[in-house]
Fold these 2 entries.
Entry 1:
Amino acid sequence: MQNIGVFYGSSTGNTKAVAKLIQTELGEDIATIIDVANAKSSDIEQFNNLIFGTSTWGIGDLQDDFEDFLSELSKAGIDGRKVALFGLGDQYSYPDSFVDGVGEIYELLEGKSCELIGKISVDGYEYDASKAEKDSQFVGLILDEENQDELTNERVKLWVEELKKQFN
Ligand SMILES: Cc1cc2nc3c(=O)[nH]c(=O)nc-3n(C[C@H](O)[C@H](O)[C@H](O)COP(=O)(O)O)c2cc1C
């Protein structure tokens, strides 16, 4: 497995903490974590494997730094790269816009020639609508620190095990 960049946008630190967990599970020698607030398209292009993580704010809005970073992501040359997404949200307070931000990133990347991996089952989550749900699956790892923080470590561990099998 070659180098992996874990890019995250985080307002109160939850997504940042999960990015660190993911880095630990992947191995600090091959995974680097990067705050999107300081990142450019050239930073993205350095990595053979990519992970993008965001929280959702407002009603279904991308986290602010990630919103600003979308133009960099959009112009990054990432043909042939394997890409996985993760996102944090609150399914009970925002059941109609649960982790919508992740869905926005997915929609942008669908138009590029990268390979999107890391989808998970929607089982175990309670919500009414989510832009991160496509074809009855979540398009990435979904975590809820407000209501299900006790599940986070295990969810991260299982997801990273799958990614390790698939990354370049
Ligand atoms: C004002 C406010 C709006 C939010 N809106 C949403 C939302 O629309 N959908 C969702 O799933 N979570 C929503 N959340 C929950 C956050 O995404 C969640 O707290 C997340 O863990 C924050 O991560 P961060 O600290 O990395 O930014 C909202 C939280 C707040 C305080």
Entry 2:
Amino acid sequence: MHELRDRDSILEIEKASIDHLTPLSLLSRYYGITPSGFLVAEIDGLVVGYVVGIIGTIRWKGEGYILAIAVDPSYRKKGIGTVLMTNIINRLKSRGAKRVYLEVKASNSAAQYFYSKLGFKEIGVEKGHYPDGEDALVMRRLPGE
Ligand SMILES: CC(C)(COP(=O)(O)OP(=O)(O)OC[C@H]1O[C@@H](n2cnc3c(N)ncnc32)[C@H](O)[C@@H]1OP(=O)(O)O)[C@@H](O)C(=O)NCCC(=O)NCCS
């Protein structure tokens, strides 16, 4: 697990998962602000997954957000997503996050199950949140969950 160094290598993973993700082209703006919020998982020198998390400031102090996570389709269901999430949550916590939030497409039941295993609970719905009009479920993880 290390911080993002090779942006191109994760674009391929994004392409395979783009239906569900905020584009890296957009997220890369955050990279200039908080490079420590970008983590990649590597196996034998190959980047197989990434996660992006940020921490709020001023009135959002104490709130962490997961902006994107994706694992290469051929490496899924091997625990890599869990390792990425655990690492980013710990990192956000160490930087002061008391709660961690994320949004997930209402139709992405695989990711919802994945997040619930990590202690996230659904706390609301954002109607028509995504550009295609789909609703987002808002999920939150409280300390100790
Ligand atoms: C969601 C995602 C990151 C999970 O990564 P992963 O490396 O496969 O996750 P893990 O192997 O750590 O899985 C953890 C748990 O979630 C379950 N899980 C993961 N993907 C699943 C799927 N497609 N269907 C059902 N369960 C799934 C695993 O079985 C495991 O549960 P278990 O311990 O009961 O077996 C990955 O499927 C992905 O990249 N999806 C496309 C992008 C995406 O949807 N991102 C989320 C946007 S909000």
